[in-house]
TrEMBL record:
The keyword Protease does not apply. Transmembrane segments: none annotated. Belongs to the LysR transcriptional regulatory family. Residues 1-59 form the HTH lysR-type domain. It comes from Shewanella colwelliana. This is Transcriptional regulator. It holds the Pfam family HTH_1. The keyword Transmembrane does not apply. SUPFAM superfamilies: Periplasmic binding protein-like II, Winged helix' DNA-binding domain. Keywords: DNA-binding, Transcription, Transcription regulation. It comes from the Bacteria.
Amino acid sequence: MDSFEGIVEFIAVAETHGFSAAARQLGHSTSHVSRQIARLETRLGCALFARTTRSVSLTQAGQRYYQQCKNLLVGLQQANEQVINQQLELSGTLRVSAAGAFAEQYIAPVLIEFASQHPELTIDMDFNSRMVNFVEDGIDFAIRFGALQDSGLVARKLANRNMMAVASPDYLQQYGLPNHPRDLKHHSCIISNKDHWLFHDADSASEPEREINVKVQGRWRSNNVPAVIAACEQHLGIGYLPKSSFINALAKGSVVPILQPYWSSGLTSWIVYQNRRFLPMRARLAIDHLLTHFADWQE
């Protein structure tokens, strides 16, 4: 059994590319991880890592050993998870990265419901739009919106999102109603993440889904959806967000829809994660819970 000592630490260092990062992930000291790796290399009689002052990388022997050890660890994880699945008593901490009003208003309540079904489970939900390192940050899965970069991550479609353009009645009275997306070049727009807005060409009979890409500008920019909505309500300009973002403002009458024939459709909210073979049971069941909840969801 001594031959298994240090394998968990070895895999953690291989995947995080550093002893300190591996130690944080495992909850051990850096010196403990370093000792375990040194003992493992001594038993094997070869170096598994090439170390410099700036980086740690696998040697050729380390690469081969990593592939074999990873398969062994997957088998062990699957055996453990089968027992957990039989008991359906999830424990530990589920770490989720999300951002935006959709995550706050719709994702969080579903995960709260999931937590209530599993009293031994802790959920850590980080509302941050930055790109996460799933290994170093210990994130089980993330919720992301829009087009995804090809990063090698697994992506599961959660919900289709349709866009809506709005403005306050006072703004429209003062500056006029835009009749076409290209008219936005002459208006103040409330910018959230991007200053290029995509619409579809409602006037094109042959290509009904042809995109209209409009570069906009305005007096207010924020990556916070409530702040964008507030700016629209205070007559600072035109906003363009997923329809669900404006439900309360529309109900109050503080904003009204505009440019409706041109709204973009088919944008998506995604669940993204690293490698499904390494996904803990608590994450897999939480993802299934979300997918089931949003199966028939409409924007």
